[in-house]
Design brief:
Strand content: 15-25%
CATH class: Alpha Beta
Number of helices: 14
Number of strands: 16
Radius of gyration: 21 Å
Oligomer: single chain
Helix content: 25-40%
Strand order of the largest sheet: 4-14-13-12-11-10-6-5
Structural class: alpha/beta
CATH architecture: Alpha-Beta Barrel
Length: about 375
């Protein structure tokens, strides 16, 4: 049976279990981005070996390439990418609106739909809330997200107000189409995907509150934090993210979209968020940046976990750039504490050598290290 169970402690730390047609997940959890139905430089089996339990695919990208018809013929995106764990599909709203906001002449947004040009071949496409939901059903995912208008956080308030209203209207349309597809496809309660809406409003508390309240009145399985979690200067929007969590129903899932720095995941979990996704572990790995827990780390101290938009966080990890010359003669293991034999067996000197030669194996090993780090981070948070 699909669904979820949540419970909160007195200090706002949330635990729970999410049940899906493709397995269950302990809450909180992190999902690496398999945007185009693959985790770059790794197979689905590699990701699972590093402890990954769920991943995110992207509706916009899969609609354009290879196309929903091919994925349907493959038996759904799980079969297509050889992954039988839970999958969440992002609606593609962030990608399509980033394309339009950043690229002059790439498309147009109105209250009914989005018109855009493919960044692949320039072909013209139309995306409506209904079509986004239909595509996600064709993908066969376990969790799906409503199409939303996702402008930059620093837009003028009047423009953000328009985006909030449009996102609210589209969320209602998405839900109607969702219920229609459930009936049309004869999907039982124990197989239905969970549906998430997205809270917009930039850095304005009143707009975030309005968005959260009206979405909650419609009613969804979960709610996401919309737009980037940082401002134009890269500063984490701690206060806004904290307030937004407090606006959401206690018995719903809370999805901190795009939150991916380890310290920000820690802080957001303390604020009451349950789910996280980001490209950081694999993207940084492909560029030679590796994440490690600091020597002697034994887990987070519950007594020091302070709920709220805290600026401070435990000094629990460090990073290393394996491309640095200092690693050329470092014959210690890539990660002596890893559960993966290849990370214990291969040396940092060998990994440095692979990166110097731009050998894909290096990107794979570094990405595996980072995926394992992030999955252990979630286990440590669940133990708080």
């Amino acid at each position: 049976m699909t669904g979820f169970k949540l419970k909160s402690s007195a200090d706002n730390l949330r635990r729970g279990r999410l049940l899906s047609a493709h397995g269950s997940l302990s809450i909180p959890f992190f999902m690496p981005d398999a945007t185009r139905a693959f985790v770059k430089a790794n197979t689905s089996a590699d990701a699972a070996k590093a402890g990954t339990e769920a991943m995110v695919v992207n509706t916009f990208h899969l609609y354009l390439q290879p196309g929903q018809k091919i994925i349907k013929r493959a038996g759904g995106v799980h079969n297509f990418m050889d992954w039988q764990g839970p999958l969440l599909s992002d609606s593609g709203g962030f990608q399509v609106f980033s394309l339009i906001h950043r690229g002059q002449g790439m498309g147009k947004i109105d209250d009914d739909k989005v018109l855009f040009k493919s960044p692949i071949d320039g072909s013209k496409h139309e995306l409506t809330p209904e079509k986004s939901i239909q595509i996600q059903f064709d993908l066969g995912v376990d969790m799906m997200v409503c199409l939303d208008d996702c402008p930059p956080n620093d837009w003028p308030k009047k423009e953000l107000e328009k985006a909030v209203r449009r996102s609210l209207d589209w969320a209602a349309r998405c839900q109607r189409e969702y219920l229609k597809q459930i009936k049309k496809r004869k999907i039982n309660e124990d197989k239905r995907p969970l549906l998430f809406a997205v809270v917009q409003g930039g850095d304005y508390e009143d707009l975030r509150l309005k968005s959260a309240q009206e979405l909650s009145a419609i009613g969804f399985d979960g709610y996401g934090f919309g737009a980037r979690p940082v401002d134009k200067d890269g500063n984490f929007l701690a206060e806004t993210i904290f307030k937004t969590a407090s606006f959401l129903p206690e018995d719903s899932l809370r999805f901190a979209l795009g939150v991916g720095m380890p310290e920000d995941i820690y802080r957001c979990y303390l604020m009451g968020w349950d789910m996280f996704d980001c490209v950081i572990p694999t993207r940084e790995g492909r560029h030679g940046k590796l994440f490690f827990f600091k020597p002697g780390f034994k887990g987070f101290a519950r007594s020091k976990a302070k709920p709220g938009p805290v600026a401070a966080y435990p000094d629990f990890y460090r990073t290393k750039n394996i491309s640095n010359a200092a690693f050329a003669q470092d014959f210690s293991p890539i990660n002596a504490d890893s559960d993966l034999p290849e990370l214990r067996r291969y040396s940092k000197a060998f990994l440095h050598h692979l990166f110097r030669l731009n050998e894909p194996l290096g990107q794979k090993l570094a990405s595996l290290n980072n995926l394992e780090f992030y999955n252990r981070l979630m286990r440590e948070l669940r133990n708080l």
